[in-house]
Amino acid sequence: MAQGIHWEWRGFGIVSGRFALCYSKLAEQFPPQSVTDDYLWAPRLVANVKVRNLLEEPFKFKRLQNRDGHLEQWAEKQEDIYKFPLNKDAWGKLSQTLAGAGLTLGSYPSGTVDAQMTVAELKRVGARIVTVNKLREARLWKGPHGSVKVEWACIFAPQAIITIGLETWDEGPEVPGLPDEEAKEDIRAAILALGLDDEPLRVLNYVDAVRIWTSRGRV
């Protein structure tokens, strides 16, 4: 994932052979991988809260910071990633996040706060879990200032659809992140270079998509 604060763009729909050819020429960032993401949803929830491969990978908070047109700035920090069983700090952040959506989570439970207990408590207070099954891969596009990760994911459930995501990508902890304007310039340059503005994609983030899926709609 992109650590820290970074800029993103994401679209859902289908892509053309022309885009597929452009994408195939980019340097591989990671090969295809099958993942299951369980997203937390509540009507007024604005944070992206999810667990990947429920028992295998961490519980993660990702928070929207800013918008500029179709570009979004998200905070994705190491201290907002927790493994099961959840500790009191994780439970407190979860409680605070849900409070912003008008839901009241109880105090830190006794016993082991594993994935099953957490899901049960979330459902009890009125939150929902939306499971998204997908096959995803990513490549890197070199922009005028830095790298942009281009993620291609084929979603199988709750809807069969493609999503293409762009995000500014840090080369490593020793390389400082780009200033906002340069980061946004890289994302916009990638959209133009890859022709994504001409593809039949609906620009949404995953929080928006999950909201649509919970109402039995289609992105």
Structural notes for this entry:
The protein is of the alpha+beta class and 219 residues long. It has one domain: Hypothetical Protein Pfu-838710-001 (Beta Barrel), CATH 2.40.320.10. Helices cover 24% and strands 39% of the residues. It has an 8-stranded antiparallel beta barrel with strand order 1-5-4-3-2-7-8-9. Strand 8 (147-157) and strand 9 (161-169) form a beta hairpin. It is globular and about 55 Å long. The mean pLDDT is 92.
Please, what is the CATH homologous superfamily?
Answer: Hypothetical Protein Pfu-838710-001
Give the strand tally. 10
Kindly report the spatial arrangement of strands forming the biggest sheet: 1-5-4-3-2-7-8-9
Mean pLDDT: 92
Helix count?
5
Strand count, sense and barrel status of the largest sheet are: 8 strands, antiparallel, barrel
Order of helices and strands: EHEEEEEHHEEEHEH
Assigned CATH class: Mainly Beta
Please name the CATH topology.
Answer: Hypothetical Protein Pfu-838710-001
Indicate the radius of gyration in whole angstroms: 18 Å
Low-confidence stretches: none
Class per helix and strand makeup: alpha+beta
Rounded to the nearest angstrom, the distance between the terminal CA atoms is: 24 Å
Strand proportion = 35-45%
Helix content: 10-25%
Please tell me what the overall shape is: globular
Total number of distinct structural domains:
1
CATH architecture: Beta Barrel
